[in-house]
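User: Design a sequence. Structure:
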């Protein structure tokens, strides 16, 4: 099982646990909070980058959803998994990231470029160049 597959399994477990804890009533806000924290723990990049991307995912895809009480949808789970894949350099499903998503990654990485390990920074920048963002 890859890191991204395990992350997806952990997300589904988090959602199931949230329902079970509340007698079948789902609290999407609490589940998404837990998913953001899970993302930050699984992300290989510095905490400020992973926090920025988790916040962006929540703001862009969850909070602006037409039905935020039912989030995350399978599509939005795919999206956060793609973010994790991109940042952890695993190439699993990251093709679904939009140019806006990649620009957000670029901004977050640039903000922390001075504190990131050079090999990690080079790898992320190379991927962004390959996708035409830089």
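Assistant: Done.
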């Amino acid at each position: 099982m890859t890191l991204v597959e395990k992350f997806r399994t952990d997300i589904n477990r988090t959602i199931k646990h949230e329902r079970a804890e509340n007698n079948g009533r789902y609290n999407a806000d609490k589940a998404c909070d837990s998913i953001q924290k899970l993302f930050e723990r699984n992300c290989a990049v510095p905490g400020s980058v992973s926090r920025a991307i988790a916040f962006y995912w929540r703001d862009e895809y969850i909070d602006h959803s037409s039905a935020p009480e039912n989030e995350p949808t399978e599509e939005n789970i795919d999206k956060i998994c793609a973010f994790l894949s991109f940042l952890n350099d695993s190439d699993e499903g990251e093709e679904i990231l939009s140019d806006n998503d990649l620009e957000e990654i670029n901004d977050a990485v640039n903000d922390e470029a001075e504190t990131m390990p050079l090999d990690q920074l080079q790898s992320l920048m190379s991927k962004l160049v390959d996708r035409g963002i830089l």
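The chain has a mean pLDDT of 94. Residues 86 and 125 are 11 Å apart (CA to CA).
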